[in-house]
Design goal:
By secondary structure, the chain is of the alpha/beta class. It folds into two domains: 177 residues, Aspartate Aminotransferase, domain 1 (Alpha-Beta Complex), CATH 3.90.1150.10; 244 residues, Aspartate Aminotransferase, domain 2 (3-Layer(aba) Sandwich). The chain has a five-stranded mixed β-sheet, sandwiched between helices. Helix 5 links the parallel strand 3 and strand 4. It is globular and about 60 Å long. One of its GO terms (biological process) is amino acid metabolic process.
Length: 461
């Protein structure tokens, strides 16, 4: 059951930040100078930034108050103990390593566990997670369920792990699988959740082959909300109780606090396995850490993000935005996920050749139209393979434009403006026939630095 999408936000602003205005001519000039790469735009050249929901949300009054009691002593600060206690209370893990951001925890984890023969299966890996795995010359394998990338396929848990595929990998390469990593919710499929039943079955298979399960937990609370709404046996359970059970089926977690921690910086690794804790800590202690003030804000955020009223409001805003687009027949991922609206760019712009980066083409159109930054998730997102190199494009099942909604930052009216801009482009979609081509790209995470040009005038191969 979806929340009532007509209710207003449950928060109010105590401080405002002026949003920069610009003209279409200015945006045309800026995106050209940025090599048609939206990640190279300056933030003051963007009106509404939906390129990520990480670290760009609004913190609560209680979090800002907590910052003031942050203790940044070199060791054993009260702030670190308060964070450890909250992690133990919420997730059931005794050992915690605070880090400055979630991908730092992932980097320490893969250094501790992976080698060139390692295979890491999961539901569908986010780009930086895959890059961390492949930095060790290991192989990351997506085990998404059939239909996960089909926007019209109706399944309440399109983030689930494909259990037969996972079992096949474990049977064939179990000795080379140092961990299974499950993203909750699944970012790559548009914030699609993983069911409790699926988590339970993943753990059962992992236990058979003595492989630890690590939950990539950036949006754990939103995942718990979907379990509460879509698995009948959990409909009367509280979010914290559901979270406790979710992590009962895991051996550890990596967490970016910039999403469901409701903070602008920070994250952690946590586990009950002392040996794993020591191995990860060996690498994390070389380059990781988190200021006491940020630990305090994260501790408060972990409590606030699991409140029912907050989650109802959060998901309601995403669904209201998505339903506005669906009413105009814009092709978006369904069911609507927990933190983002994902548009099938190939269906949105049917005349643009797929090899001309149709998702990035749509992202550029949206920016020029209204100053909105999104992220094109397509062949360009993953970068080169560690074995075959940069020239191997990885064709995703779909070319998606990803619009991530920061938490407690934009109002419903502002998102209606975004929806209207998309609808205007959709109405003139048949006038857009050419896309972009690559001038330069890097081997790893190439979407951050890629240089593109318009394909107008370039012959189609």
């Amino acid at each position: 059951m979806l929340p009532d999408c007509h209710l207003p936000e449950t928060w109010r602003a105590k401080m405002v930040e002026r949003i920069p205005s610009s003209t279409k001519d200015q945006r045309q000039e800026w995106i050209c100078k940025a090599d048609y790469n939206l990640f190279k735009l300056r933030s003051n050249e963007v009106r509404f930034d939906l390129g990520t929901d990480g670290g760009s949300g609004g913190m609560s009054d209680n979090q800002w108050s907590a910052l003031m009691r942050g203790d940044s002593a070199a060791t054993r600060s009260p702030s670190s103990y308060r964070l450890q206690e909250k992690v133990k209370e919420l997730f059931g893990f005794t050992y915690t390593i605070p880090v400055h951001r979630g991908r730092a925890a992932k980097h320490a984890l893969v250094q501790a566990l992976l080698n060139e023969e390692s295979i890491v299966p999961g539901n569908a890996f986010f780009d930086t997670t895959r890059a961390n795995i492949e930095s060790q010359k290991a192989i990351a394998i997506d085990c998404a369920i059939e239909g996960a990338f089909d926007i019209y396929y109706q399944h309440p848990f399109k983030g689930n792990v494909n259990l037969p595929e996972l079992e096949k990998i474990l049977q064939g390469s179990g000795s080379n699988v140092p961990m299974i990593m499950v993203s909750i919710t699944c970012d790559k499929t548009g914030g699609q959740p993983v069911s409790m039943h699926n988590l339970r079955e993943v753990k059962r298979l992992a236990k058979m082959f003595n492989v630890p399960v690590i939950l990539d937990s950036a949006r754990f609370a939103e995942n718990a909300w979907f379990i509460q709404k879509n698995e009948s046996e959990y409909s009367s359970q509280s979010i914290p109780d559901i979270v406790q059970e979710m992590y009962h089926h895991a051996d550890g977690m990596v967490m970016s606090g910039k999403t469901d921690g409701l903070v602008n910086a920070g994250g952690f690794f946590a586990t009950n396995n002392k040996d794993l804790f020591d191995r990860v800590g060996k690498y994390a202690n070389l380059f990781c850490g988190l200021a006491g003030r940020d630990m305090e804000a994260l501790t408060v955020g972990l409590g606030e993000v699991t409140q029912q009223e907050y989650l109802d409001d959060r998901i309601r805003q995403i669904h209201r935005f998505g339903m506005r687009l669906m009413a105009a027949n814009v092709p978006i991922q369904q069911p609507i996920g927990g933190h983002a609206i994902v548009i099938d760019a190939s269906l949105f712009l049917p005349l643009v050749p797929r090899e001309e980066y149709v998702a990035k083409t749509l992202a550029v159109e949206l920016y020029v139209e209204a100053g909105i930054r999104g992220a094109g998730m397509e062949t360009v997102i993953g970068g080169g393979n560690p074995i075959t190199g940069i020239n191997r494009n990885r064709s995703n099942a779909k070319d998606f434009l990803y619009l991530a909604i920061p938490r407690q930052a934009y109002t419903n009216d502002q998102l209606s403006f975004v929806a209207n801009a998309l609808i205007q482009i959709f109405e003139r979609r048949f006038t857009i026939t050419r896309g972009l081509y690559v001038v330069h790209e890097d081997a790893i995470l190439r979407y951050l630095t890629i240089q593109l040009k318009k394909a107008d005038g370039k012959s189609i191969a």
